[in-house]
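Good morning,

Attaching, inline, the C-alpha coordinates for the sequence recovery test we're adding to the shared suite. The designed sequence is right after.
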Protein backbone atom coordinates (compact mmCIF):
# COMPACT_ATOMS: atom_id res chain seq x y z
CA UNK A 1 0.00 0.00 0.00
CA UNK A 2 2.73 2.59 0.86
CA UNK A 3 4.45 1.97 -2.50
CA UNK A 4 1.22 2.50 -4.44
CA UNK A 5 0.53 5.78 -2.65
CA UNK A 6 4.11 7.04 -2.98
CA UNK A 7 4.17 6.21 -6.68
CA UNK A 8 1.04 8.16 -7.56
CA UNK A 9 1.72 10.70 -10.26
CA UNK A 10 1.35 14.31 -9.18
CA UNK A 11 -1.65 15.05 -11.47
CA UNK A 12 -3.53 12.04 -10.10
CA UNK A 13 -2.65 12.96 -6.52
CA UNK A 14 -3.78 16.56 -7.05
CA UNK A 15 -7.09 15.36 -8.48
CA UNK A 16 -7.66 13.05 -5.49
CA UNK A 17 -6.81 15.92 -3.12
CA UNK A 18 -9.21 18.25 -4.93
CA UNK A 19 -12.00 15.65 -4.85
CA UNK A 20 -11.34 14.81 -1.19
CA UNK A 21 -11.66 18.46 -0.22
CA UNK A 22 -14.87 18.91 -2.22
CA UNK A 23 -16.56 15.82 -0.75
CA UNK A 24 -16.23 17.13 2.81
CA UNK A 25 -19.07 19.55 2.01
CA UNK A 26 -21.40 16.52 2.19
CA UNK A 27 -20.61 16.14 5.90
CA UNK A 28 -22.14 19.53 6.73
CA UNK A 29 -25.77 20.66 6.63
CA UNK A 30 -28.00 20.08 4.78
CA UNK A 31 -26.45 16.70 3.85
CA UNK A 32 -24.99 15.72 7.29
CA UNK A 33 -23.18 12.66 5.87
CA UNK A 34 -20.40 13.04 8.45
CA UNK A 35 -18.58 9.70 7.77
CA UNK A 36 -17.66 11.01 4.31
CA UNK A 37 -15.38 13.60 5.91
CA UNK A 38 -13.46 10.87 7.76
CA UNK A 39 -12.87 8.96 4.53
CA UNK A 40 -11.87 12.11 2.62
CA UNK A 41 -9.52 13.26 5.36
CA UNK A 42 -7.90 9.82 5.55
CA UNK A 43 -7.24 9.91 1.81
CA UNK A 44 -5.88 13.45 2.10
CA UNK A 45 -3.58 12.41 4.95
CA UNK A 46 -2.13 9.51 2.96
CA UNK A 47 -1.34 11.87 0.08
CA UNK A 48 0.93 13.86 2.42
CA UNK A 49 2.81 10.90 3.88
CA UNK A 50 6.57 11.03 3.26
CA UNK A 51 6.38 13.62 0.49
CA UNK A 52 8.59 16.63 -0.14
CA UNK A 53 7.60 20.02 1.25
CA UNK A 54 6.80 21.35 -2.22
CA UNK A 55 4.60 18.35 -3.04
CA UNK A 56 2.76 18.65 0.27
CA UNK A 57 1.99 22.32 -0.26
CA UNK A 58 0.64 21.73 -3.76
CA UNK A 59 -1.56 18.85 -2.58
CA UNK A 60 -2.81 20.91 0.36
CA UNK A 61 -3.60 23.75 -2.03
CA UNK A 62 -5.59 21.42 -4.31
CA UNK A 63 -7.45 20.07 -1.28
CA UNK A 64 -8.19 23.63 -0.12
CA UNK A 65 -9.54 24.65 -3.54
CA UNK A 66 -11.93 21.69 -3.50
CA UNK A 67 -12.80 22.27 0.17
CA UNK A 68 -13.74 25.92 -0.27
CA UNK A 69 -14.89 25.75 -3.87
CA UNK A 70 -17.59 23.23 -2.98
CA UNK A 71 -18.24 24.38 0.58
CA UNK A 72 -18.84 28.07 -0.15
CA UNK A 73 -19.88 28.01 -3.79
CA UNK A 74 -23.04 29.83 -2.68
CA UNK A 75 -21.24 33.18 -2.81
CA UNK A 76 -21.86 32.88 -6.56
CA UNK A 77 -25.52 33.77 -5.89
CA UNK A 78 -24.60 37.05 -4.23
CA UNK A 79 -22.04 38.01 -6.87
CA UNK A 80 -24.24 37.13 -9.84
CA UNK A 81 -27.81 37.81 -8.70
CA UNK A 82 -27.18 40.94 -6.64
CA UNK A 83 -23.72 42.02 -7.74
CA UNK A 84 -24.52 42.17 -11.43
CA UNK A 85 -21.62 39.97 -12.56
CA UNK A 86 -22.10 37.71 -15.56
CA UNK A 87 -22.33 33.95 -14.82
CA UNK A 88 -18.84 33.34 -16.23
CA UNK A 89 -17.23 36.21 -14.32
CA UNK A 90 -19.10 35.33 -11.12
CA UNK A 91 -17.83 31.75 -11.41
CA UNK A 92 -14.31 33.07 -11.96
CA UNK A 93 -14.55 35.23 -8.81
CA UNK A 94 -15.73 32.24 -6.78
CA UNK A 95 -12.71 30.28 -8.05
CA UNK A 96 -10.36 33.14 -7.14
CA UNK A 97 -11.86 33.31 -3.66
CA UNK A 98 -11.47 29.53 -3.25
CA UNK A 99 -7.82 29.83 -4.31
CA UNK A 100 -7.28 32.67 -1.85
CA UNK A 101 -8.78 30.64 1.00
CA UNK A 102 -6.73 27.61 -0.09
CA UNK A 103 -3.55 29.73 0.11
CA UNK A 104 -4.47 30.57 3.71
CA UNK A 105 -5.43 26.95 4.40
CA UNK A 106 -1.94 25.64 3.52
CA UNK A 107 -0.04 27.92 5.93
CA UNK A 108 0.05 25.56 8.95
CA UNK A 109 0.86 22.63 6.67
CA UNK A 110 4.19 24.26 5.91
CA UNK A 111 5.07 23.38 9.50
CA UNK A 112 3.99 19.78 8.95
CA UNK A 113 5.86 19.41 5.67
CA UNK A 114 8.99 21.19 6.86
CA UNK A 115 9.55 19.41 10.16
CA UNK A 116 7.17 16.50 10.76
CA UNK A 117 6.30 14.69 7.55
CA UNK A 118 8.93 11.94 7.97
CA UNK A 119 8.43 11.70 11.72
CA UNK A 120 7.01 8.38 12.91
CA UNK A 121 4.25 10.28 14.73
CA UNK A 122 3.83 12.96 12.10
CA UNK A 123 0.53 11.76 10.67
CA UNK A 124 -1.23 10.95 13.94
CA UNK A 125 0.03 13.85 16.07
CA UNK A 126 1.56 16.65 13.99
CA UNK A 127 -1.10 16.68 11.26
CA UNK A 128 -4.09 17.01 13.67
CA UNK A 129 -2.17 19.67 15.62
CA UNK A 130 -1.48 21.66 12.45
CA UNK A 131 -5.13 21.35 11.38
CA UNK A 132 -6.25 22.68 14.75
CA UNK A 133 -3.87 25.63 14.51
CA UNK A 134 -5.17 26.29 11.01
CA UNK A 135 -8.81 26.48 12.14
CA UNK A 136 -7.83 28.80 14.98
CA UNK A 137 -5.83 31.01 12.61
CA UNK A 138 -8.84 31.33 10.31
CA UNK A 139 -10.88 32.88 13.13
CA UNK A 140 -8.71 36.03 13.18
CA UNK A 141 -6.40 36.29 10.15
CA UNK A 142 -7.60 39.19 7.93
CA UNK A 143 -10.60 39.59 10.32
CA UNK A 144 -11.30 35.87 9.98
CA UNK A 145 -13.49 33.54 7.94
CA UNK A 146 -14.33 30.72 10.40
CA UNK A 147 -16.39 28.60 8.02
CA UNK A 148 -16.38 24.82 7.38
CA UNK A 149 -14.81 23.75 10.69
CA UNK A 150 -14.92 19.95 10.83
CA UNK A 151 -16.66 19.87 14.20
CA UNK A 152 -19.86 21.41 12.84
CA UNK A 153 -20.70 18.14 11.09
CA UNK A 154 -20.89 16.43 14.51
CA UNK A 155 -23.64 18.47 16.11
CA UNK A 156 -25.66 15.24 16.49
CA UNK A 157 -22.92 12.65 17.02
CA UNK A 158 -21.20 11.56 20.27
CA UNK A 159 -18.59 14.27 19.72
CA UNK A 160 -21.24 16.92 20.47
CA UNK A 161 -20.55 16.28 24.15
CA UNK A 162 -17.20 18.02 23.72
CA UNK A 163 -18.71 21.29 22.43
CA UNK A 164 -19.33 22.90 25.86
CA UNK A 165 -15.83 21.79 26.95
CA UNK A 166 -13.56 22.50 23.99
CA UNK A 167 -15.78 24.28 21.48
CA UNK A 168 -16.11 23.31 17.84
CA UNK A 169 -12.35 23.34 17.24
CA UNK A 170 -11.77 20.67 19.86
CA UNK A 171 -14.30 18.53 18.03
CA UNK A 172 -12.44 19.19 14.78
CA UNK A 173 -9.22 17.92 16.38
CA UNK A 174 -10.88 14.63 17.29
CA UNK A 175 -12.28 14.28 13.76
CA UNK A 176 -8.93 14.79 12.05
CA UNK A 177 -7.21 12.57 14.63
CA UNK A 178 -9.70 9.78 13.86
CA UNK A 179 -9.05 10.16 10.14
CA UNK A 180 -5.25 10.17 10.48
CA UNK A 181 -5.30 7.10 12.75
CA UNK A 182 -7.37 5.33 10.10
CA UNK A 183 -4.88 6.45 7.44
CA UNK A 184 -1.94 5.23 9.50
CA UNK A 185 -3.54 1.78 9.85
CA UNK A 186 -3.83 1.62 6.06
CA UNK A 187 -0.19 2.64 5.72
CA UNK A 188 1.09 0.10 8.27
CA UNK A 189 -1.32 -2.73 7.53
CA UNK A 190 1.55 -5.11 6.73
CA UNK A 191 4.04 -3.69 9.23
CA UNK A 192 5.44 -5.74 12.11
CA UNK A 193 3.47 -5.59 15.40
CA UNK A 194 6.33 -3.80 17.14
CA UNK A 195 5.94 -0.88 14.73
CA UNK A 196 2.25 -0.54 15.56
CA UNK A 197 2.57 0.17 19.29
CA UNK A 198 2.29 3.96 18.95
CA UNK A 199 -0.61 3.44 16.55
CA UNK A 200 -2.42 1.23 19.06
CA UNK A 201 -1.98 3.89 21.73
CA UNK A 202 -3.31 6.58 19.37
CA UNK A 203 -6.27 4.36 18.46
CA UNK A 204 -7.07 3.86 22.14
CA UNK A 205 -6.94 7.62 22.76
CA UNK A 206 -9.14 8.22 19.75
CA UNK A 207 -11.74 5.71 20.92
CA UNK A 208 -11.61 7.27 24.39
CA UNK A 209 -12.44 10.69 22.92
CA UNK A 210 -15.56 9.32 21.22
CA UNK A 211 -16.70 7.39 24.29
CA UNK A 212 -16.07 10.40 26.54
CA UNK A 213 -18.16 12.49 24.18
CA UNK A 214 -21.15 10.23 24.80
CA UNK A 215 -20.67 10.66 28.55
CA UNK A 216 -20.25 14.43 28.31
CA UNK A 217 -23.51 14.74 26.36
CA UNK A 218 -25.36 13.76 29.53
CA UNK A 219 -23.90 16.64 31.54
CA UNK A 220 -25.83 19.90 31.83
CA UNK A 221 -23.13 22.48 32.40
CA UNK A 222 -25.46 25.46 32.68
CA UNK A 223 -28.83 25.19 34.41
CA UNK A 224 -31.73 27.19 32.96
CA UNK A 225 -33.90 29.50 35.03
CA UNK A 226 -37.43 28.02 35.43
CA UNK A 227 -39.19 31.25 34.40
CA UNK A 228 -40.28 31.03 30.74
CA UNK A 229 -39.70 33.92 28.33
CA UNK A 230 -42.27 34.04 25.54
CA UNK A 231 -40.81 35.03 22.17
CA UNK A 232 -42.63 36.32 19.09
CA UNK A 233 -40.70 36.58 15.82
CA UNK A 234 -41.51 38.40 12.60
CA UNK A 235 -40.13 37.00 9.36
CA UNK A 236 -41.04 39.66 6.75
CA UNK A 237 -39.51 37.84 3.75
CA UNK A 238 -38.84 41.10 1.93
CA UNK A 239 -37.15 40.53 -1.41
CA UNK A 240 -33.47 41.45 -1.28
CA UNK A 241 -33.72 43.73 -4.30
CA UNK A 242 -36.57 45.58 -2.59
CA UNK A 243 -34.58 45.94 0.63
CA UNK A 244 -31.71 47.53 -1.27
CA UNK A 245 -33.84 49.95 -3.27
CA UNK A 246 -34.25 53.53 -2.13
CA UNK A 247 -37.90 53.72 -3.12
CA UNK A 248 -40.34 55.55 -0.88
CA UNK A 249 -43.34 53.36 -1.76
CA UNK A 250 -41.55 50.06 -1.08
CA UNK A 251 -40.10 51.48 2.14
CA UNK A 252 -43.54 52.46 3.43
CA UNK A 253 -44.90 49.05 2.40
CA UNK A 254 -42.12 47.32 4.36
CA UNK A 255 -42.82 49.38 7.49
CA UNK A 256 -46.55 48.71 7.26
CA UNK A 257 -45.85 45.00 6.91
CA UNK A 258 -43.76 45.02 10.10
CA UNK A 259 -46.56 46.80 11.94
CA UNK A 260 -49.24 44.41 10.66
CA UNK A 261 -47.27 41.21 11.26
CA UNK A 262 -46.51 42.28 14.83
CA UNK A 263 -50.13 42.97 15.76
CA UNK A 264 -50.78 39.55 17.28
CA UNK A 265 -47.36 39.23 18.91
CA UNK A 266 -47.51 41.97 21.55
CA UNK A 267 -48.69 39.52 24.22
CA UNK A 268 -45.20 37.95 24.18
CA UNK A 269 -42.35 39.06 26.44
CA UNK A 270 -40.10 39.80 23.47
CA UNK A 271 -40.83 40.60 19.82
CA UNK A 272 -37.92 40.18 17.41
CA UNK A 273 -37.47 41.70 13.97
CA UNK A 274 -34.52 40.54 11.81
CA UNK A 275 -31.37 42.27 10.61
CA UNK A 276 -32.10 45.46 8.66
CA UNK A 277 -35.84 44.99 9.18
CA UNK A 278 -36.02 48.76 8.81
CA UNK A 279 -35.11 49.15 5.10
CA UNK A 280 -31.62 50.43 4.39
CA UNK A 281 -33.10 53.53 2.78
CA UNK A 282 -33.86 54.67 6.34
CA UNK A 283 -31.37 55.08 9.16
CA UNK A 284 -32.52 54.88 12.78
CA UNK A 285 -32.76 58.65 12.85
CA UNK A 286 -34.79 58.79 9.62
CA UNK A 287 -37.19 56.12 10.89
CA UNK A 288 -37.75 57.74 14.31
CA UNK A 289 -41.47 58.54 13.80
CA UNK A 290 -42.21 54.90 13.01
CA UNK A 291 -39.89 53.60 15.72
CA UNK A 292 -41.41 55.90 18.35
CA UNK A 293 -44.83 54.51 17.42
CA UNK A 294 -43.53 50.95 17.86
CA UNK A 295 -41.79 51.94 21.10
CA UNK A 296 -45.09 53.22 22.50
CA UNK A 297 -46.98 50.11 21.40
CA UNK A 298 -44.37 47.77 22.91
CA UNK A 299 -44.28 49.73 26.17
CA UNK A 300 -48.07 49.65 26.48
CA UNK A 301 -47.98 45.84 26.23
CA UNK A 302 -44.95 45.52 28.56
CA UNK A 303 -43.04 43.94 25.68
CA UNK A 304 -39.41 44.25 24.59
CA UNK A 305 -38.96 44.89 20.86
CA UNK A 306 -35.61 44.41 19.12
CA UNK A 307 -35.06 45.36 15.49
CA UNK A 308 -32.20 45.47 13.05
CA UNK A 309 -31.55 48.95 11.68
CA UNK A 310 -28.80 51.09 10.17
CA UNK A 311 -27.60 53.59 12.78
CA UNK A 312 -26.00 56.87 11.69
CA UNK A 313 -23.50 58.60 13.96
CA UNK A 314 -23.84 62.05 12.46
CA UNK A 315 -21.03 63.55 14.54
CA UNK A 316 -18.47 61.00 13.36
CA UNK A 317 -20.13 60.56 9.95
CA UNK A 318 -20.23 56.79 10.40
CA UNK A 319 -22.90 54.18 9.74
CA UNK A 320 -23.36 50.98 11.77
CA UNK A 321 -25.30 47.79 11.20
CA UNK A 322 -27.16 47.75 14.50
CA UNK A 323 -29.81 46.30 16.77
CA UNK A 324 -32.02 48.72 18.69
CA UNK A 325 -34.09 47.96 21.77
CA UNK A 326 -37.56 49.50 22.13
CA UNK A 327 -40.35 49.26 24.69
CA UNK A 328 -39.05 47.09 27.52
CA UNK A 329 -35.94 46.38 25.44
CA UNK A 330 -32.94 48.56 26.15
CA UNK A 331 -29.67 49.34 24.43
CA UNK A 332 -27.98 49.61 21.07
CA UNK A 333 -25.58 47.13 19.58
CA UNK A 334 -23.31 47.88 16.61
CA UNK A 335 -21.90 45.00 14.60
CA UNK A 336 -18.24 44.15 15.34
CA UNK A 337 -17.41 41.68 12.56
CA UNK A 338 -18.15 42.95 9.04
CA UNK A 339 -18.66 40.96 5.85
CA UNK A 340 -16.02 41.82 3.20
CA UNK A 341 -17.61 43.37 0.08
CA UNK A 342 -21.10 43.08 1.62
CA UNK A 343 -20.57 45.69 4.35
CA UNK A 344 -17.19 47.14 3.47
CA UNK A 345 -14.92 46.99 0.45
CA UNK A 346 -11.25 46.03 0.93
CA UNK A 347 -8.97 48.06 -1.35
CA UNK A 348 -11.93 50.39 -1.83
CA UNK A 349 -10.19 52.94 -4.05
CA UNK A 350 -9.08 50.25 -6.49
CA UNK A 351 -12.27 48.17 -6.60
CA UNK A 352 -15.11 50.71 -6.48
CA UNK A 353 -16.73 50.98 -9.89
CA UNK A 354 -15.23 47.85 -11.47
CA UNK A 355 -18.51 45.92 -11.27
CA UNK A 356 -21.81 46.51 -9.49
CA UNK A 357 -20.83 43.93 -6.83
CA UNK A 358 -18.23 46.38 -5.47
CA UNK A 359 -20.82 49.16 -5.27
CA UNK A 360 -23.50 47.45 -3.16
CA UNK A 361 -25.52 50.05 -1.21
CA UNK A 362 -24.72 48.35 2.11
CA UNK A 363 -20.93 48.47 1.67
CA UNK A 364 -20.49 51.65 3.69
CA UNK A 365 -20.78 50.12 7.16
CA UNK A 366 -18.23 50.90 9.87
CA UNK A 367 -16.90 48.57 12.54
CA UNK A 368 -18.68 48.85 15.89
CA UNK A 369 -16.75 49.35 19.18
CA UNK A 370 -15.28 46.16 20.65
CA UNK A 371 -16.25 46.92 24.28
CA UNK A 372 -20.04 46.83 23.96
CA UNK A 373 -22.20 45.30 26.68
CA UNK A 374 -25.11 43.75 24.85
CA UNK A 375 -28.83 44.36 25.26
CA UNK A 376 -31.35 44.03 28.11
CA UNK A 377 -34.98 42.88 27.99
CA UNK A 378 -37.02 43.03 31.19
CA UNK A 379 -33.98 42.33 33.35
CA UNK A 380 -32.50 39.58 31.12
CA UNK A 381 -29.11 40.35 29.58
CA UNK A 382 -28.67 39.36 25.93
CA UNK A 383 -25.65 38.59 23.77
CA UNK A 384 -26.49 40.03 20.34
CA UNK A 385 -24.94 38.83 17.09
CA UNK A 386 -25.72 40.32 13.70
CA UNK A 387 -25.51 37.75 10.92
CA UNK A 388 -21.84 36.83 10.29
CA UNK A 389 -20.86 37.33 13.95
CA UNK A 390 -22.56 34.14 15.14
CA UNK A 391 -19.89 32.03 13.40
CA UNK A 392 -17.10 33.30 15.71
CA UNK A 393 -16.82 30.82 18.63
CA UNK A 394 -14.67 32.87 21.00
CA UNK A 395 -16.44 36.15 20.29
CA UNK A 396 -19.79 34.68 21.34
CA UNK A 397 -18.35 32.71 24.27
CA UNK A 398 -16.69 35.80 25.76
CA UNK A 399 -19.78 37.95 25.37
CA UNK A 400 -22.05 35.26 26.83
CA UNK A 401 -20.22 35.38 30.16
CA UNK A 402 -22.14 38.53 31.02
CA UNK A 403 -25.51 37.46 29.59
CA UNK A 404 -28.19 34.80 29.84
CA UNK A 405 -29.55 34.49 26.27
CA UNK A 406 -28.16 34.63 22.72
CA UNK A 407 -29.88 36.67 20.00
CA UNK A 408 -28.89 36.35 16.35
CA UNK A 409 -30.56 38.57 13.73
CA UNK A 410 -29.81 37.84 10.09
CA UNK A 411 -30.55 38.73 6.51
CA UNK A 412 -29.62 35.70 4.40
CA UNK A 413 -31.51 36.78 1.30
CA UNK A 414 -28.15 37.46 -0.41
CA UNK A 415 -27.84 33.71 -1.07
CA UNK A 416 -31.43 32.74 -1.93
CA UNK A 417 -32.26 29.04 -1.46
CA UNK A 418 -28.66 27.78 -1.40
CA UNK A 419 -26.99 25.56 1.20
CA UNK A 420 -25.65 28.69 2.91
CA UNK A 421 -28.67 29.12 5.19
CA UNK A 422 -28.44 25.47 6.30
CA UNK A 423 -24.73 25.73 7.07
CA UNK A 424 -25.35 28.99 8.88
CA UNK A 425 -28.04 27.58 11.16
CA UNK A 426 -25.82 24.61 11.95
CA UNK A 427 -23.11 26.99 13.14
CA UNK A 428 -25.64 28.98 15.17
CA UNK A 429 -26.77 25.77 16.86
CA UNK A 430 -23.15 25.08 17.80
CA UNK A 431 -22.91 28.47 19.55
CA UNK A 432 -25.93 27.55 21.68
CA UNK A 433 -24.36 24.19 22.55
CA UNK A 434 -20.95 25.70 23.36
CA UNK A 435 -22.38 28.31 25.70
CA UNK A 436 -25.33 26.39 27.15
CA UNK A 437 -27.55 29.32 26.17
CA UNK A 438 -30.92 29.44 24.43
CA UNK A 439 -30.63 31.15 21.06
CA UNK A 440 -33.27 33.28 19.36
CA UNK A 441 -32.38 32.98 15.68
CA UNK A 442 -34.21 35.56 13.55
CA UNK A 443 -33.91 35.90 9.77
CA UNK A 444 -35.55 37.99 7.07
CA UNK A 445 -36.25 35.13 4.66
CA UNK A 446 -36.09 32.08 6.91
CA UNK A 447 -35.76 29.70 8.35
CA UNK A 448 -35.93 31.42 11.74
CA UNK A 449 -35.79 29.29 14.89
CA UNK A 450 -35.83 28.91 18.65
CA UNK A 451 -32.78 26.83 19.65
CA UNK A 452 -32.37 25.36 23.14
CA UNK A 453 -29.27 25.27 25.33
CA UNK A 454 -28.29 21.88 23.88
CA UNK A 455 -28.24 23.18 20.33
CA UNK A 456 -31.55 21.54 19.39
CA UNK A 457 -34.15 23.36 17.28
CA UNK A 458 -37.38 23.66 19.29
CA UNK A 459 -39.42 25.43 16.60
CA UNK A 460 -38.70 26.98 13.23
CA UNK A 461 -40.33 28.88 10.39
CA UNK A 462 -40.54 28.03 6.71
CA UNK A 463 -38.13 29.55 4.22
CA UNK A 464 -39.21 32.37 1.90
CA UNK A 465 -42.58 32.95 3.53
CA UNK A 466 -43.76 36.08 5.28
CA UNK A 467 -44.90 34.75 8.62
CA UNK A 468 -44.74 35.01 12.40
CA UNK A 469 -44.18 32.34 14.99
CA UNK A 470 -43.72 32.04 18.71
CA UNK A 471 -41.70 30.00 21.15
CA UNK A 472 -40.40 29.85 24.69
CA UNK A 473 -36.84 30.24 25.96
CA UNK A 474 -35.21 30.32 29.40
CA UNK A 475 -32.42 32.46 30.80
CA UNK A 476 -29.19 30.66 31.77
CA UNK A 477 -26.61 32.17 34.12
CA UNK A 478 -23.98 29.42 34.57
CA UNK A 479 -20.84 29.11 32.44
CA UNK A 480 -19.67 26.17 30.37
CA UNK A 481 -15.94 25.27 30.45
CA UNK A 482 -15.54 26.63 26.94
CA UNK A 483 -16.93 30.00 28.02
CA UNK A 484 -14.37 30.15 30.83
CA UNK A 485 -11.29 29.27 28.80
CA UNK A 486 -12.16 29.69 25.12
CA UNK A 487 -9.87 28.28 22.44
CA UNK A 488 -6.65 29.33 24.17
CA UNK A 489 -5.96 25.94 25.83
CA UNK A 490 -6.46 24.19 22.48
CA UNK A 491 -3.86 26.38 20.80
CA UNK A 492 -1.41 25.73 23.64
CA UNK A 493 -2.20 22.01 23.48
CA UNK A 494 -1.52 21.82 19.73
CA UNK A 495 1.71 23.79 20.10
CA UNK A 496 2.91 21.52 22.93
CA UNK A 497 2.16 18.44 20.84
CA UNK A 498 4.41 19.74 18.08
CA UNK A 499 7.14 20.65 20.54
CA UNK A 500 6.98 17.31 22.34
CA UNK A 501 7.40 15.18 19.23
CA UNK A 502 10.18 17.41 17.90
CA UNK A 503 12.10 17.57 21.19
CA UNK A 504 13.80 14.14 20.89
CA UNK A 505 15.16 15.09 17.48
CA UNK A 506 16.49 18.37 18.85
CA UNK A 507 18.19 16.61 21.76
CA UNK A 508 19.80 14.00 19.48
CA UNK A 509 21.59 16.59 17.39
CA UNK A 510 25.35 16.27 17.66
CA UNK A 511 27.03 19.23 19.33
CA UNK A 512 29.12 21.46 17.12
CA UNK A 513 32.89 20.76 17.20
CA UNK A 514 34.99 23.15 19.23
CA UNK A 515 36.43 24.74 16.11
CA UNK A 516 32.92 25.65 14.86
CA UNK A 517 31.97 27.00 18.27
Amino acid sequence: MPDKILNLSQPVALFIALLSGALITLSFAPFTLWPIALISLAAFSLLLKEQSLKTILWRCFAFGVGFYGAGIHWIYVSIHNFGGASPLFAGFLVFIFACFMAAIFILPFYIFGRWFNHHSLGLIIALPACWLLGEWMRTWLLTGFPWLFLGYAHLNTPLAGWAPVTGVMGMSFIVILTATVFAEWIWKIKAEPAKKISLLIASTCCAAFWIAGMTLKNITWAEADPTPIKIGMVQPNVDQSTKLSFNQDTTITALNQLRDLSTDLWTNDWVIWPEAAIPTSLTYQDALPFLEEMNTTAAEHDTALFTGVIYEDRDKKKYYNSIAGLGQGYGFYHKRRLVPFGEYVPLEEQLRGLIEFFNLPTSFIHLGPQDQHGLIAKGVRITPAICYEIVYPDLIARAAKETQVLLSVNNLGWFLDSIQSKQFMQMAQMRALETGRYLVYSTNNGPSAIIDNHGKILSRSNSFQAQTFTGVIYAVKDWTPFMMYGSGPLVIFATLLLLCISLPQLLKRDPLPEEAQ
